[in-house]
Amino acid sequence: MATLDAKIPAGPIKDKWTKHKNDINLVNPANKRLIDIIVVGTGLAGGAAAASLAEMGYSVKAFCFQDSPRRAHSIAAQGGINAAKNYQNDGDSIYRLFYDTVKGGDYRSREANVYRLAEVSGNIIDQCVAQGVPFAREYGGLLDNRSFGGVLVSRTFYAKGQTGQQLLLGAYSAMNRQIGKGKIKMYNRHEMLELVKVDGKARGIIARNLVTGAVESHSAHAVVIASGGYGNVFFLSTNAMGSNTTAAWRVHKKGAYFANPCYTQIHPTCIPRSGDYQSKLTLMSESLRNDGRIWVPKNIDDIEAIRSGKIKPVQIAEENRDYYLERRYPAFGNLVPRDVASRAAKERCDAGYGVNATGEAVYLDFASAIKRYGKEKAIVTGEENPSDSRIIELGEGVIEDKYGNLFQMYEKITDDNPYKTPMQIYPAVHYTMGGIWVDYNLMTSVPGCYAAGEANFSDHGANRLGASALMQGLADGYFVLPYTIGDYLADDIRTGEIPTDSTEFKEAEEAVKARITKFMDNKGTKSVDHFHKLLGKIMWDKVGMARNEKHLKEAIAEIRVVREEFYKNVLIPGGAMELNPELEKALRVEDFLELGELFACDALARTESCGGHFREESVELDGPQKGEAKRDDTNFAYVSAWEWTGDPGQAKLHKEELEFNDIELKQRSYK
Amino acid sequence: MSKSGPLSSSIARKMAMALSAFFLMFFLLQHLTINMTSVIDGDTFNDLSQFMGTNFLVQYILQPVLLLGVVFHFVIGFVLELKNRSARDVRYVKYKGAASATWMSRNMILTGLVILAFMGLHFYDFWIPELKTKFIDGDWSGMVAGEEGYRYLTELKHKFENPVRVGIYVVSFILLGLHLAHGFNSAFQSMGANNKYTKGLKKFGIAFSVLIPLGFIFIALFHHFNH
Amino acid sequence: MKLTLKVWRQKSANDKGKIETYPIDNISEHMSFLEMMDVLNEQLITEGKIPVSFDHDCREGICGMCSMHINGEPHGPDRGVATCQLHMRKFKDGDTIYIEPFRAKGFPIIKDLVVDRSAFDRIQHAGGFVSVNTSGNTQDANALPIPKADADTAFDSATCIGCGACVAACKNASAMLFVSAKVSQFSLLPQGKVEAKRRVLHMVEQMDKEGFGNCTNTGACEVECPKGISLENIARMNREYLKASVSSSK
After folding, report:
1. What average pLDDT does the structure give for chain A?
2. Do residues A166 and A134 lie in contact, with contact meaning Cβ atoms separated by under 8 Å?
3. All structural domains of chain A with their residue ranges
4. B202 pLDDT higher than 80
5. Shortest Cα distance, chain C CAs vs residue B135, angstroms
């Protein structure tokens, strides 16, 4: 096993980034326009990077598979974005954000990267406000903050339940300015299908025009992958239908190491699955846990009565309810981090206490918050001796102000009124902390190929805190990549335009065309979704919230069978030279089927439990933490970076040892 | 900004529509006020009619401006309609316009055309005879030879004897009301008025679109039944 | 539920296109409309036919990609939702459902129910931004207080998802609601005021170039908008436009 050099600058942690910025090479403004950069993906990381690089003078080519950069799935992020501004005077600081992020990530992230993230977090808010992002404000006209799960300060900036949308539209507007100036050439409805390397360096991509079906070569001096996470390997996730791993996986197959694929975040508050036809899952913001209490009935008889519709949840008496998070984690209660909350829900449902027909749902109840707020409101408005129904009315008003849009969304989807009956929730795959391995400069192991945002592995360790994904995407895109990429490109000022008629491009193009032809000519009988669902089921059942050796080994074997069957039996209707969504899906699922296996292999190799990765074999056996996940810092304080060798099951492991100089490794306790 | 004339942009066109609409709505109010006197006091009506019919400012400045205003409103209206039709070159197989917009707002061209046709009749009834008397016969006295007092009220009453004509007038006024029901507030919206007074203005607009045509209908029916 | 679907099929931009009828069975009322379409496509694939192409992505009502005209209305009969959040419980067993693409000259059809809405992007390129470069040195976010009411109104305008339902619903295929939402957002914030005149003039000019119709204030856009973007935005844009045209030196 080889070790990896993350190229972390020397010096004290708080000076690393400043010093590094001062040391790295710059590109003369006159030379920047001679340099092309391809950015794949236009979410927060890609959009921000494309706009910033174009502002600096580079010629940017941006790609997205959607019809507009504004549709990237960053848009769906609800809750907010963290920044160590300390506007609330609650003792927040760069160090504290850094500390919380490393601790929240269960000590599996790279200290230097996280510190830098915390350092630039304040600039992100300044930048977004300058762009006209309408964050929530207080009556005094200053920015409002809310608190989010797993931390003790209020550092989350938000725009109602649509923070991701507003930030993405900010980045999109910055892109628009550059597109209008001709500095960004935008390729909508294009999907990257291959990375092209010339002399060992990333020099371009092969992309398919999804409207015409044409397979096109695009060259550049550097390629940035900002294509998001791979949660859709589970078929059902809160990701968008089109979210895929193809760009990341293709880069991996061209030599970029894939790090920690098994670190997946399962978000505890999603709307449960309602049937086999389910195409995706919908997240309800984590902020709901600030006021909602999570419970299941104590008695199994009540469960049966509820499932058969004989009784309603509101009829179950207080003493017959099990508020299991409050019971197990008295200190944090319903506000434990996401991984902990998700596993606790699974534990109850596995024990047979799931409250819907599928047995996979728990209650999120606002009744006590409604009563509490109602009483407070009555005092504020000076109503004396309000009746119970008046209190509830007032309380519902307060809840509506806070979560109105989420409650409405819930009602539209489930047809249940969450003001009157508890919500049903269940964990769902939401975010992938793992991704393409990158060094401190965000460069992958392929020279000239960078990865930013959720697509890389860098900052969240084994578990991501709420409101940190937006922060990382924008930090990478606005403030990190634009500097670090110059260091590499400084050597390219004399290279000139990269020709696309070289053998390397021709070969890559032919390989892509061959893949497409193989699918189109396949005389199969089953749709792509059929195989994607099979893969998703294996992943969820055996590589999901709790993993063990037996299941992981079974999963690896089963995925290989599905993959074989997929190549033999998939059916793609229509033609290759036209808009063909089935072909698009096939090319994505092909890569998911390989990634899924590597994912399981990684989970198998990491026999410790950490963050979102829970190995049933690795739990505390006694003491106050009995039954909780047990991390193994002696043997696993490293990043697993996998090198492609031609078969996902035979990937070669490289380790990046994680050093903790500024934070002491501790057990995460939320008791 | 406009590259080829002041009406090249879509917003400029809708503002032109709104401004001419304001002018025409003001004219309607003025027309109704004068006509109303025919019900209350015939002499006042005759005096006002003689004034309007012979005053230089009214005859040679306001009247042409009014005509221009009418023509302008119709022409822009047609241009808008044509442009708007071409903005959806292939029609929907199923289009449920009623689900999201009022009949009035969707059929301004229809109500407008009816009003245009009505104006033809109205000109034929009143304006053309008036022009003939004044400009061909050269009679500016407002009198009929051998009779006492002005002729205006008599002529008005005479016109409303025919029940068919009255019927046409009534129907046209109803359509005018429908045209106004959307047009009044639409004109304000086009000019950018949308604030805390909008709610009140909306109600006023509805009242305007009911009362103005109702007034005209009342006058027509009054004279029909009282001659 | 058993339904009869009447779906617009069109092979490509140049094809003429026509309505095809597909019977479909075993539809659960808990399905979303797009999941029903998934079932239809699965059925078509099994029958060896070409599935129906339609745009969709996030399926939670925020990306703005889905764009179906259902039974005569964009995003169907429910209010405040995009097609992806429309559920089959809004229909009855035995219903006939017409499914068409959003239609407008500014939204040319690519295939079946997929339309090209890049006109919206081009309108944004013309001025839908604040000209500020990325820099770690913009002033502190709290240096410039913004009245809460203005920030909230700007937010409401900014929630537009750019789906194009306003254009699809409008009998004139006008894009005024979409354009006015962006103009409004920036005109309400101090950061956007500097370029306000230039922005509104350029964006309206581009909107007209794209072939959208003229607004006649029917209000259909507001009713059909999945995000409830208000007509107030159009009035605000008209005001801004008037101000800008009167005072512009060009």
Report:
1. 95
2. yes
3. 268-428, 505-634
4. yes
5. 40
